[in-house]
Amino acid sequence: MVPELVGKLTALGCTVAVESGAGMLALYFDDDYEAAGAEVSDDVLDGADLVVSVNPLADAEVRRLPTGTSVMSFLPTNQVPDLVVDLRDLGITSFAMELVPRISRAQSMDALSSQALVSGYRCAIVAAGLLRRFFPLNMTAAGTVPPAEVVVLGAGVAGLQAIATSRRLGAVVKAYDVRSAAAEEIRSVGGQSIDLQLETLEGSGGYAREMTQDRAQRQMELLTPYVAAADALITTAAVPGRQAPLLVTASMVEQMKPGSVVVDLAAESGGNVEGSVPGEVVRIGHAQVWGGANVAAQLPQPASKLYAQNIVNLVTLMTRSEDGGATFAPDFEDEIVAGSCVTHEGVIRHEPTRAAIEGPLEPPPTTVADTYVEGEPS
Ligand code: NAD
């Protein structure tokens, strides 16, 4: 939560309590929250109907919550199955921000998009900062310095923001993505779309599909000259629910020019670039390779503000205001509520998570009416 949005929740009739020091790293101080109408305390869990955080609560914190309490945060269910089991068994209602459906009505609640936007911007700034030459063209009396060439692989929300930011800094930007809609999106933010003449890979919900080994190999071969010619390479490719695809091998990076820069936003989730290390800058050939780690947090103020706005919009959808007060009353008939819910009333409601934790559903027991024996009247 950020101080300037506390008023949106109190206007709904909610009482807002903020953990002491919660905003410090984003340069929001306890006094700012109090001035905005929140209570600041060391123990905010007591009496809360809804607990909102960025990362999921720790197991010990969840165990302190009474049955029926709701929690809302990023909740990577495949990484924290034990926590999901606790949430189920304790009767906690949990909502995962990464499960908010990506439909038009939910755009203002889409924290994946808001955080990807921050990360994409940061990637372009990191590339410009590490590169020891100009991004823009400079024509001076002393001569002309050509613009830097930036190649962006993966043109989703983060990649498009990296393209737009690099363009604003004056670089020439070429970009590639496996989705067919991406070419037009790349051009719309000032980039040149790289056409590899390969089939596009559309998955469900506007996302990409995983590549086959052959397709991945062919894509690497075709991208090699683009990577070799780039001053800066920014990679942001992802496939939901999978490790990030490997797009660039170390030998491709070794062909880059002296002083070139690689920024791998996907380093934490497996890496688009072979050899990138999350949170570190390593040298491969002549290139400095920067591996992203919790990249949105490197711009904590806009990341927090946009995340808080996503949360406020989702809480507003799930809150009923009455008689000057508010009741947190999610309507599970609503597609956004149902889609983002992980556990409710002792049940894991997100089916892929349920199947991963509890195994396949038992087939329904056969009833007498289902049993037909040849020759007997049914
Ligand atoms: P993402 O983070 O899952 O992936 C990032 C990008 O990597 C995607 O564009 C994907 O196509 C690309 N990619 C995957 N494999 C690749 C490969 N082998 N080579 C090159 N690129 C590869 O996706 P995202 O950025 O969260 O969203 C992707 C798209 O989803 C958006 O561009 C948009 O069309 C859609 N979207 C819709 C909504 C909405 O309607 N509310 C919200 C957000 C995103």
Describe the structure.
- The structure is a single chain.
- By secondary structure, the chain is α/β, with parallel strands linked by helices.
- The chain contains 12 helices and 18 strands.
- The chain is globular, with a radius of gyration of 24 Å.
- The relative contact order is 0.14.
- The structure holds nicotinamide-adenine-dinucleotide.
Give the neighbour order of strands across the main sheet. Answer: 10-9-8-11-12-14-13
Rough shape? globular
Q: Main sheet, how many strands, which sense, barrel? A: 7 strands, mixed
Count of DSSP H/I helices: 12
In total, the number of strands is: 18
Summarize the structure.
By secondary structure, the protein is α/β, with parallel strands linked by helices. It is built from 12 helices and 18 strands.
Features:
alpha/beta; 5-stranded mixed sheet; 12 helices; binds nicotinamide-adenine-dinucleotide
Write the layout of secondary structure elements.
Layout: H1 3-12, E1 17-19, H2 30-35, E2 39-41, E3 50-52, H3 59-63, E4 70-73, H4 81-89, E5 93-96, H5 111-130, E6 138-140, E7 143-145, E8 149-153, H6 157-168, E9 172-176, H7 182-188, E10 192-193, H8 213-229, E11 232-235, H9 250-254, E12 261-264, E13 281-284, E14 287-291, H10 300-317, E15 319-322, E16 325-328, H11 335-340, E17 341-344, E18 347-348, H12 351-358
Helix pairs in contact: 1-10, 5-6, 5-10
Nicotinamide-adenine-dinucleotide (NAD) binds at residues 102-104, 107, 110, 112-113, 116, 153-159, 176-179, 181-182, 206-208, 211, 236-240, 245, 247.
